[in-house]
Structures are given as structure tokens and as C-alpha cells.
Design a protein that fits this description.
The protein is α/β, with parallel strands linked by helices. 34% of the residues lie in helices and 28% in strands.
Length: 385
């Protein structure tokens, strides 16, 4: 646990300069360097800042104070900046390292952020000072205590509930997280016009509609990895969005998603020239059929999409098809001894099992997608475009 004493050390001019001078060194070398006062503290801070270079570039640039646990639980700046909130004032119930609060400060005149841990609150204040974010007020309190006495009214209320239990276990159900925004919903609606809740990337998007009725839900991915699910309770109709940061997004109503049909009727394999691997944000939202209907010729449940013509602006990665094969004895003979890069989509075997069964190994330049379309299990050889 990050202590008040560590914070005091890191706020000193001496330690600040030591971190600055050693930012490019290996943390293990720093920890053993007897010339450095508080070498272990400096080493840990350098280690965390080095991790921040891509995930939290603004924090890295100002040499922010980054406790290990706070870093591990923080959003990336790219995800934080993506949220569609703006207005005059916003209440952030879950400050932590303050990445979301800092992103919100760019779109709101006033940000009030709540942090129940006194040391973490002090870290956030110091970091906001270094970042020059003068419109953020940090209040050391639990969300429940603050809401019980709050007399202000905000345009938005944002919450990223703590998804760790008392024993460190991961929590997925929103009602189990802290603060319990489901139980607090009536109070939240009385202090803010609109509400945004950030959930685990494992959160089931349909659960949002069960809990809150009409709302908008977006699944966000970055570099092919699901990062978060955001719920917007803002008076809008039930809407789903899949957002792949840096690539694009797709939106439709829940009804449109539920009515979209799968197309799994394969014809002559040789005609398919392109394969698209749907982005994980589409898969998690179960929007693959809605997104690829009319763009591809064949698409499967959270698997792949095949087409004769190159699809326009699909939310996924496109490859050229070199060949499509059924998984029979002939395919097994062909694969023997091959070194391959394996992609799996809606396929029942793990990579190791695929290699064992077809006597191939991972690590080669050939790209193969193992998937299921309808009742057929297929292997598709792919080339980059």
C-alpha cells in the first residue's frame, strides 16, 4: 500500500530530480545505486513512469506520481478521452489516479472528483497541479458520504466502480462493485442530469438494459483488446455502439441487432477473396451480424466474414484469402511440419491442440484462421493487404 511517507518523499525536490535524472535507467540498477537517496522509492517510480509512456503520456510528460496499484487500475488516456461527456460541470465519484477526471477537465469547466483513500486523494491533487488542471477539485470522501450531503447539481455524474473485492478478487456484477451505483441510482439522478458508468470489459451489455431500462451502451476496444463497457443514462433510446479506437465505430438499436440474421450458406470456396475478422468490440456487443449484413457474403456468429469484393469500412481486420480448407485428412497432411501464426474465431480447440492434431507449430509467417461457419469447421489461409 502506498504510504503518506512515500508520498512525502516523492514530493520532495531531491526525489523529483532523482527520478528525472534516472528515468531512462533500469529500475533494478537504480535500486542498487547507493548514490541515490531513497533509491528503492525512486526505482519503483521510474518503473511505473516507464510503463506510463504509452498508456498515460500526459502523466509521463509531467513526471506525475504513480503508485503501482493506482496505475494497474487506471484507464488509458485514449480510452478516457473517448467518452462522450461534455458540459459545464461533472461529478466523478471514483477518482483513483485521476485519469478519467483529467480527461473530463478538458470538456467541462468544473470537475469534482471523489476519492475515499486519503493518500490517493493527495496523489491526485499533486498530479493535477503538475498537469496544470486547475478546474479539478479533489474531495477525500466515500461516494456514499459525499452524495448524502451533496447540495450541488451537475450536468453529468461519472463513476468507474471499484471491481476488486475485499480479498482482491475480480468483480463483474455491477451490484457487487463499490460504489453500488445500482442502489444509488435514485440519488445519482437527483444530483446530475445525466449519468455515465464505466464497467469491466467482461460486463454483459444486455445487463445494462435489465438494470437501467432505456440507455446507451458502448463497448470500447484498443489495439484489438476489449478495454471497457460504458453505460450512458442520458434519456436516449436503447442503443448499442462498438468503438474500436483509431479504427472506427458501429452503432445500431437493440432491436436492429436482435433482428439481424446470420449468413452461413457457403458456396464455392474459391470465390471468396477476402476475410474480415470482426473487432472484439463488435463481438462483445453481439453486433457482428448487424455490422456485416450487406457488406459481406457470409458471416458467422462472432467468427469471421467472407466476401467476394473487399468490404467498405468494416469494423475489423481485412486479409486476402489464399485458400479455404475443410479439416480433413488431406488438410492434415498439408499442414504437417508447418510453422504458422494461428487465429481462432468461434473454434473449439486451443492453439496447442490445433498444433498437436495437425502436426504444425506456432512461430511462422503463415497466417491461418481456424473458425466455424454454420456447421462447418474451416481453416483459412490469409495474407495481409
Amino acid at each position: 500500500m502506498f504510504s503518506q511517507e512515500e508520498l512525502k518523499i516523492l514530493c520532495s525536490a531531491e526525489c523529483y530530480e532523482a527520478v528525472k535524472e534516472n528515468i531512462g535507467r533500469k529500475p533494478t540498477d537504480i535500486a542498487l545505486d547507493r548514490r541515490i537517496v531513497h533509491a528503492s522509492v525512486v526505482a519503483t517510480q521510474v518503473k511505473n513512469l516507464q510503463k506510463c509512456r504509452t498508456k498515460l503520456p500526459s502523466y509521463y510528460a509531467v513526471q506525475a506520481i504513480v503508485p503501482t496499484l493506482a496505475y494497474e487500475q487506471s484507464s488509458s488516456e485514449e480510452c478516457a478521452l473517448r467518452k462522450r461527456l461534455e458540459g459545464e460541470s461533472v461529478l466523478d465519484l471514483t477518482c483513483g489516479l485521476g485519469v478519467d477526471a483529467y480527461a473530463l477537465s478538458k470538456r467541462f469547466k468544473r470537475v469534482v472528483t471523489i476519492e475515499r483513500n486519503g493518500v490517493v486523494a493527495a496523489v491526485a491533487r499533486e498530479n493535477f497541479r503538475r498537469l496544470g488542471a486547475e478546474n479539478i477539485e479533489v474531495i477525500n470522501s466515500s461516494a456514499e458520504e459525499y452524495l448524502a450531503t451533496c447540495t450541488d447539481h451537475f450536468d453529468w455524474c461519472f463513476s468507474d466502480p471499484d471491481r476488486r473485492g475485499e480479498r482482491g478478487e475480480k468483480l463483474v456484477r455491477l451490484e457487487d462493485c463499490s460504489p453500488n451505483v445500482v442502489a444509488l441510482m435514485d440519488r445519482l439522478k437527483s444530483v446530475a442530469d445525466k449519468i455515465c458508468i464505466k464497467c469491466s470489459p467482461l460486463f454483459d451489455v444486455d445487463e445494462a438494459f435489465r438494470l437501467f431500462g432505456s440507455c446507451s451502451v458502448e463497448t470500447v476496444s484498443l489495439s484489438g483488446e476489449a478495454k471497457e463497457v460504458n453505460i450512458y443514462i442520458d434519456g436516449s433510446d436503447s442503443q448499442l455502439s462498438a468503438v474500436a479506437i483509431g479504427i472506427g465505430e458501429f452503432s445500431c438499436s437493440v432491436e436492429e441487432r436482435n433482428n439481424a440474421k446470420w449468413s452461413t450458406q457457403l458456396s464455392d470456396f474459391a470465390q471468396y477473396r477476402y476475410i474480415t475478422l470482426p473487432d472484439v468490440a463488435l463481438q462483445h456487443s453481439r453486433m457482428v451480424a448487424a455490422a456485416f449484413e450487406g457488406k459481406c457474403d457470409v458471416w458467422s456468429n462472432n467468427g469471421v466474414a467472407l466476401s467476394v469484393e473487399r468490404p467498405s469500412e468494416p469494423l475489423g481486420r481485412i486479409f486476402e484469402v489464399e485458400g479455404i480448407y475443410e479439416l480433413n485428412s488431406e488438410f492434415k497432411r498439408m499442414m504437417r511440419g508447418s510453422k504458422v501464426e494461428i487465429y481462432r474465431r468461434d473454434f473449439p480447440m486451443a492453439n496447442a491442440e490445433i498444433c498437436k492434431r495437425y502436426r504444425c507449430s506456432e512461430g511462422g509467417a503463415e497466417r491461418w484462421c481456424f473458425t466455424r461457419i454454420g456447421e462447418k469447421f474451416l481453416a483459412i489461409k490469409m495474407n495481409s493487404i
